[in-house]
């Protein structure tokens, strides 16, 4: 059995890792979709798809389970989205999502959709982690060590801080 | 004389029907543009272009007047929009719209633009009808019977309710 | 039962009309997709979607059967095409096509695909009709009278002749 | 040395002109990018790219310095934007911008980014000028005379006023 | 009076220059559209829009007449093309083109279209110049000196030769 | 050191596998780009990106080396392509390609480009394998066993045969 889980992973954090590991117990292979792949360099979506893929693959390397990581860009045409995802991924049997739209689109196509269990949602949250980075608060304990390394390699903390500078409109 | 009227028809309701019938008295043929054709499965735009076309055609079948129903997607390039509409439709002589942008774009191209008369705007309103569906209030008397049938066939009430579920972000 | 038939209708001719009328005998409603809707003003695709829609609707007006005419643009992403068509049209039960790709895409999605019977393929052919227009040969007996009227209204014969002029490259 | 400066120029005003003239003192050639080129006919972006280009070229004609004016549409893919700009313009050595995102994208690619000095930001502001046009207040002293001429030629004051009319939704 | 002339200018050569100078005698301002702006790095279209703009502007600097240079990308939707060009350029009164499609599209919109006079078409031809570059034959006398400089600056001769290398498919 | 190799992998065959294994000896990590990701269901590009990714990942599972598989769609804008690839992948140090255009684009951006060594090019070729499938000749010994399994699972042999059927144009 193969399952799909789609997220933005901005960045990939310990809550994500726990979810992925639990799904890995239930299925044979996981397809990890990297959503909004075309987005980067904003406060909400600071990391490119390539950077997010690197975070995920470096983190999961040490766990033995089989998985695929696939970037998926937004197409702004909801009625095509399921077909779009299907064309980019191996066939899958069920989807894990907490997003009402994704659930609706897949259920209308006859897929089984499950809700992943969340842990410590207040801290294990991309929004919270980006907020902490911006405010020089502790954040590194909320993500896997490999994600810290990737963010360091691309100077991600400073990217977020620079992007938050007030514009100076000409 | 041929007239164009563009709306989103989310869903097609009795106010729409009254407008269409009045325009039908004034012109030989009506072109009904289904705007934002690429949108569906959101609370604001729950129905696909195909579903909306079906509502309109089933409703108008019993009236004898000639009309065309054409899906028109957003192109996010206002200066091209009039040409885009012209390329998809038979030639037309005047436009009925209450939208300031549509009026401006067509008037700059030399078209005659008229305002349709509205009836009972508080209830005959897509926003109001979607709100009632969401809140389990009466709505079926606000739309033609054929629209009720289409919404039933596609399980539209539940689609809207499911799309309103709070997200559960991973 | 509702059937879909997709063509380019460049222009709509007597062979097309015979096919549509035969399908109308077999099903309750026909959806006529106007393919390559974004194309016009070339020797292969001289007429806009709007012009082709006008040809079809004017021709079919006198027959009583119910139908929909929907423009469908090319999306150059075969794996999305079936979903794209589904989003723009009412639900349908079977497809009539002689195109191998369209057949494959719909059959992989579980649709029933039928081949329409063709009549006098040598003359009832868009290619042949465009060739005759270009060479000042007889063509008007190959299309319905309403199509002659539309082509006259838009000065279509001269459009085709002008488009065939040799380029004079700067 | 060649410098790039990107703005929306909705419309081109005296503050813009001062900045351009100062940059012209520092470099050999200026490339003036007309951003959001696809936008027009909204209250925030009333003028087409063609109209904005005309404002700039007519204004700068009397100054002797060499420059290029290039329309640049939004591509909604930040990681591609620098390459996109590079493909449309002559090579440049530095960028003038006050926008945090533009700064970040170009600095990550190794470009030198400078902040232009602003003058009288409260009045020399596109937002303020559009607000004044809408409210029938004095605005013509805030833009070069050539810009007044262009806005008059296209009846720009009335376009803005008409676009602000309340919608009358069908 | 303002005239539009659209070409690909791959590269800008002496035949182009003669045409532009003759048009400059007849009109007040010339708009030079750089067509297929998105294309580059192929044997048919080796130069980016930015490189072609640089060729044109450097060459025309020494002639006193006023002109605009505007990149125009292909949109593969003929019925929108005139509006697209209009949105990117100042208003114009006539078009110079030898291309049958461009002539047809503009004439259908009511524009006056003229044919530029060509000189020495066998040698003053982009195709011929690219062929000579590829085969190490003389070509520099066929283009303005400024174009030679631009092609040298970007190492254009070698780009063309490298692009012609036989593929070695994996 | 990380290397990028881009191919269409229609299908992934023994020649591809040999190349990948050799590159794996030279670098720490390989990024395998799946080019023309949007294409499928044609005789030249029969398999979807998802199907090709499955072929690659299933085949490489038994070799220990680290790699990424990333779908990359065509963007028809050569000057953006390097940035596009960079945005979707982890950073890389060199590229393996035999394609002249890919080589040129990456070398102009300062990348090191290498040619992979090819083996038995006549038989280890996607074109040859697709030809054999179409003609009922032996082909399974030319691809890894896992690829045979994927093609069987999706009924790929019959898809290719069905796509080759002569069209029967309406």
Automatic annotation (TrEMBL), chains A, B, C, D, E, F:
The keyword Nucleotide-binding applies. Keywords: ATP-binding, Cytoplasm, NAD, Nucleotide-binding, Nucleotidyltransferase, Pyridine nucleotide biosynthesis, Transferase. Its EC number is 2.7.7.1. Pathway: Cofactor biosynthesis; NAD(+) biosynthesis; NAD(+) from nicotinamide D-ribonucleotide: step 1/1. It comes from the Archaea. CDD domains: NMNAT_Archaea. Pfam families: CTP_transf_like. NCBIfam families: arch_NMN_Atrans (TIGR01527), cyt_tran_rel (TIGR00125), PRK01153.1 (NF002243). It catalyses: beta-nicotinamide D-ribonucleotide + ATP + H(+) = diphosphate + NAD(+). GO terms for biological process: NAD+ biosynthetic process. It comes from Methanothermococcus okinawensis (strain DSM 14208 / JCM 11175 / IH1). Residues 4-132 form the Cytidyltransferase-like domain. This is Nicotinamide-nucleotide adenylyltransferase. It is found in: Cytoplasm. One of its GO terms (molecular function) is nicotinamide-nucleotide adenylyltransferase activity.
């Amino acid at each position: 059995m193969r399952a799909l889980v789609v997220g933005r992973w901005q960045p990939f954090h310990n809550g994500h890792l726990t979810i992925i590991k639990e799904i890995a117990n239930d299925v044979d292979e996981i397809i990890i979709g990297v959503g909004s792949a075309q987005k980067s360099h904003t406060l909400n979506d600071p990391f490119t798809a390539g950077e997010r893929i690197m975070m995920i693959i470096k983190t999961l390397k040490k766990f033995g389970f089989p998985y695929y990581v696939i970037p998926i860009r937004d197409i702004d045409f909801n009625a095509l989205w399921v077909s779009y995802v299907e064309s980019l991924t191996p066939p899958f049997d069920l989807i894990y999502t907490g997003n009402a739209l994704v659930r609706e689109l897949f259920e209308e196509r006859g897929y089984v959709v499950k809700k992943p269990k969340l842990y410590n949602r207040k801290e294990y949250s991309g929004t919270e982690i980006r907020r902490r980075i911006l405010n020089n608060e502790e954040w590194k304990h909320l993500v896997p060590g490999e994600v810290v390394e990737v963010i360091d390699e691309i100077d991600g903390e400073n990217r977020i801080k620079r992007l938050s500078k007030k514009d100076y409109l000409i």
